[in-house]
Specification:
By secondary structure, the protein is α/β, with parallel strands linked by helices. Helices cover 42% and strands 20% of the residues. The protein has 18 helices and 18 strands. The strands form 5 sheets. A 6-stranded mixed β-barrel has the order 1-5-2-4-3-6. It has a 4-stranded antiparallel beta sheet with strand order 12-15-17-13, sandwiched between helices. It has a 3-stranded parallel beta sheet with strand order 7-10-11, with helices on both faces. A hairpin with a 2-residue loop joins strand 3 and strand 4. The chain binds 1,5-di-O-phosphono-alpha-D-ribofuranose (RI2) and 6-aminopyrimidin-2(1H)-one (CYT). 6-aminopyrimidin-2(1H)-one binds next to helix 11. The site of 1,5-di-O-phosphono-alpha-D-ribofuranose has 16 residues, from strand 7 and helix 8.
């Protein structure tokens, strides 16, 4: 064991990492990526070792933001460190890499180590990759979901709780800020939590954060649902299924979201708030998580079965994901478009149809509307302005940012129009290319960054007309996004030369 003086390093590294001087590391027999226990005043945490010759002096320990905050240390404090073993869950991850089925206890151990930050980013990334390639059966998925719930807090409401969730994968998917207030305006109780972006350029949590505080405590969620009927918050901020956000953290840069992880991630969040009934959105289309009907059915049946195992009645909606929902992509632009829809302004048909289809299913599940009449009722509630009122109540109860109208939403200061190289009809809109461009422009972290589509599939364009506009919070990222856009050409025009493949001799 060594006692070392803390030197805080103001960098977020996404996990518990420390830096030791080469000599101190040698004394303890430590190498880079080994683990140590770090202890101070009864607090003990596992951390991953990095080694430096000169940045950290002998007798010092460099502590990055995450571990400094967890251990509550300032410069000059002392901590004790000692080498420790790799957790057993690394062996279980390897078992999955080799394609074996995991037991309930092994899965619980992995999830517990994820929650306790005992796994390095490398190990966590291997876990996600192993699940993507090897998959999990329904038993493993159920155990994983329950482990995710049991390693966090849960909320018990005294009334019937409704919920809604999308598996994501289609850009511009801002159905929730419209569907949730419609259902809440009709009297349903919906404590909705969302993830941040996983494969897209804006998750519901990212876009809600433009308008309100999404970091609520369990008690705040309970109080606000009691008072106004619904919340729209970020799951990662509350201790509800806390493993989820840590897994999302490594899925995001990889842009992958394995089937059984989607099931566990969504359903753990629903179980943690005690949902009794829920609607699940499955966007289907090329370049989404669900390319065809067969995959959509598999998702729907697996979700329904997992729902049954957890005591949640679930109805799935397979929705059109062949191109973005609405015309806006990126947190602020999507928040603005959702508000425009709530204000009754003219927005894309696809957005209104999708949001009211889903809200209608919730109204029917809640026995507020007869079967087959939910959608019309949802449209009436939207038209009446009651959903807008409810939405403002929700965002004000969570913490007002002073945004009351769509015009108040701040969007990217820099923008560039992309023009059509020729006349014709739009034949292909590439979800993936649009996400790549929006992410290059800075979304989802730069809230104002993203894309507004001026043209969508089957629409006619003249030569030189604006196809879409890219927004960014910084000029450098805008320039980069324009470069990528010109390379990827996300909108194809019928008759357009798609690619020229020269002969070897050319
Ligand atoms: O599209 P990508 O980024 O893969 O999926 C992540 C999004 O999907 C879910 O949707 P919602 O909360 O029901 O809107 C998550 O909560 C998150 O907002
Ligand atoms: N993996 C996930 C996909 C969509 N939503 C989630 O919350 N999680």
């Amino acid at each position: 064991m060594l006692e070392l003086k803390v030197k805080r390093i103001d960098i977020e590294v996404g996990g518990f990492e420390i830096i030791l001087n080469e000599e101190d590391a040698k004394e303890l027999g430590l190498h880079p990526q080994d683990r140590v226990k770090v202890a101070r005043r009864g607090l003990i945490t596992t951390a991953i070792v990095n080694i430096s010759e000169s940045m950290i002096k002998r007798g010092e320990i460099g502590m990055f933001i995450e571990i400094s905050e967890k251990m509550n240390v300032k410069n000059g404090d002392t901590v004790k460190i000692a080498p420790t073993m790799r957790p057993m869950s690394v062996d279980y991850i390897k078992k999955k890499i080799y394609g074996e089925k995991l037991t309930k206890d092994e899965i619980y151990e992995i999830i517990k180590d994820i929650v306790d930050d005992n796994l390095s980013t490398i190990e966590l990334a291997s876990y996600v990759t192993a699940i993507q390639i090897r998959g999990m059966d329904m038993d493993e998925t159920e155990w994983m979901t329950k482990a995710m719930v049991d390693t966090g807090e849960t909320i018990d409401f005294e009334y019937t709780v409704f919920d809604v969730h999308s598996i994501g994968g289609v850009p511009g998917n801002k159905y929730a800020p419209i569907a949730v207030p419609i259902a809440a305006a009709a009297g349903l109780k919906i404590p909705k939590t969302s993830s941040r972006a996983i494969s897209s350029a804006a998750g519901t949590a990212d876009l809600m954060e433009v308008l309100t505080n999404v970091r609520l405590s369990v008690n705040d969620i309970r109080r606000i649902v009691d008072e106004v009927g619904a919340t729209l918050t970020w799951g990662g901020a509350v201790n509800l299924a806390p493993a989820d956000d840590k897994i999302v953290h490594v899925e995001y840069p990889l842009g992958i979201d394995p089937h059984s992880q989607v099931l566990a991630s969504v359903m753990a969040k629903k179980k943690a708030v005690g949902a009794n009934f829920m609607v699940l959105d499955i966007p289907m289309g090329p370049e989404t998580k669900v390319p065809d009907e067969k995959t959509a059915r598999k998702y729907a049946m697996d979700f329904i079965e997992l729902g049954e195992r957890l005591g949640i009645t679930l109805e799935a909606a397979v929705t059109y994901g062949g191109q973005p929902i609405g015309r806006a992509i990126g947190p602020a632009l999507e928040a603005r478009e959702a508000m425009q829809a709530l204000e009754g302004r003219r927005v894309s048909h696809s957005l209104i149809e999708k949001a009211t289809d889903i809200a209608g299913m919730l109204l029917e599940l809640g026995n507020i509307a007869e079967r087959g009449e939910g959608k019309d009722m949802a449209k009436d509630i939207l038209k009446s302005g009651k959903a807008r009122e409810k939405f403002l109540e929700i965002i004000n109860a969570q913490g007002s940012r002073g945004i009351e109208k769509s015009e108040d939403v701040p969007i990217g200061k820099y923008k560039a129009d992309i023009h059509s190289p020729e006349e014709g009809y739009i034949s292909i809109v590439s979800n993936k290319a649009l996400v790549k461009i929006a992410r290059t422009a800075g979304a989802p972290k730069d809230k104002g960054a993203g894309i507004i589509l001026n043209k969508k599939k089957s629409e006619k364009t003249d030569k030189g007309e604006v196809l879409y506009t890219i927004y960014a919070d910084s000029k450098a990222k805008l320039d980069e996004a324009v470069k990528i856009a010109k390379m990827l050409k996300p909108l194809k025009i019928e008759g357009m030369l798609l690619e020229r493949i020269p002969s070897y001799k050319a």
